[in-house]
Amino acid sequence: MQQLPFNALVSDLDGTLLNRHHRIGEFTIDTLNKLEQKGVDIILATGRNHTDVQSILQKIGSEKALMITSNGARVRDLQGSLIYSNSLPEALAREIYQTPFDRSKVCLNTYQDEGWFINVEVPELAKYHQDSGLMYQVVDFNRHHARDMEKIFFIARNPKDLLPVEEYLRANYSDCTSIVYSAVTCLEVMNKGVSKGDALAHVLQDKPYGLQNCIAFGDGMNDLEMLSRVGKGCIMQDADARLKEACPHLEQIGSHQDEAVATYAREIFGV
């Protein structure tokens, strides 16, 4: 049997595996199917909620792929069964609800086990979830519960509007949370120690191979730990400039708009 260069392909979704319409392309689907047939494990690692990722996996037709979701706060199998969980404590999450921000420029969101919650209507966010149909529920965070908290996140139209939010969060919660940008306009807060890299390490405890036997692809600061810890990390051409600066030694490949992960994977794995 042919020796595989890597046992697993691990990929971020938005800006990486998905095209500019936030959907998975046919070329990518065919590539992932061929890799799985060769015995390569497919692991999707994203800031998205598992409901979103399940719909993408159904399109791929994968039989045993795993989902690292909410930046590593949850890991689930194809059936949605929970494999690993690391939630923000309720009292801490309620405190973070009170973070000051300009409500005309920034919106507050949470992913919790029972869904996606937001403080105001933002209809254009639906375009990121066309395949799954996942949609938010508008709530008053002064009254909303904080159970089963995967992450709290702040979205702005302009990156500069998140700077005072980031400054406040780092000044008050950097010792007890993980604070990271999943995109230049999305700032996210998880429990301390949560990252895609940490979740991947947990996943691999049950595998006969380790982090060095994985190839990973990403484009955001929430991919940093994952890309740094695997055998080979690849950064997308259109990645966050801060990620490129933090990992100058990692190879940069093409654009997600051209399905560059699939093209690169075909070359590496010979499919």
Q: Name the shape in a single word.
A: globular
Name the CATH architecture of the largest domain: 3-Layer(aba) Sandwich
For the record, the count of structural domains works out to: 2
Count all strands and give the number. 14
CATH topology of the largest domain: Rossmann fold
Portion of residues in beta strands equals: 15-25%
Q: Between the first and last Cα atoms, what is the distance in angstroms?
A: 15 Å
CATH homologous superfamily label of the largest domain = HAD superfamily/HAD-like
Spatial ordering of strands, largest sheet: 5-4-3-2-1-12-13-14
* Mean pLDDT across residues: 94
What is the CATH first-level class name of the largest domain? Alpha Beta
Along the chain, the helix and strand elements come as EHHEHEEEHEEEEHEEHEHEHEH
Percent of residues in helical segments?
Answer: 25-40%
Q: Supply the number of helical segments.
A: 9
Describe the structure in your own words.
The longest helix has 12 residues, at 26-37. Helix 7 links the parallel strand 12 and strand 13 (232-235). The radius of gyration is 18 Å and the shape is globular. It has two domains: 8-85 and 194-269, HAD superfamily/HAD-like (Rossmann fold), CATH 3.40.50; 90-191, 2-Layer Sandwich (Hypothetical Protein, Haloacid Dehalogenase-like Hydrolase, Chain: A, domain 2). By secondary structure, the protein is α/β, with parallel strands linked by helices. It has nine helices and 14 strands. Strands 5-4-3-2-1-12-13-14 form an eight-stranded mixed beta sheet, with helices on both faces. It has a six-stranded mixed beta sheet with strand order 8-7-6-9-11-10, with helices on one face.
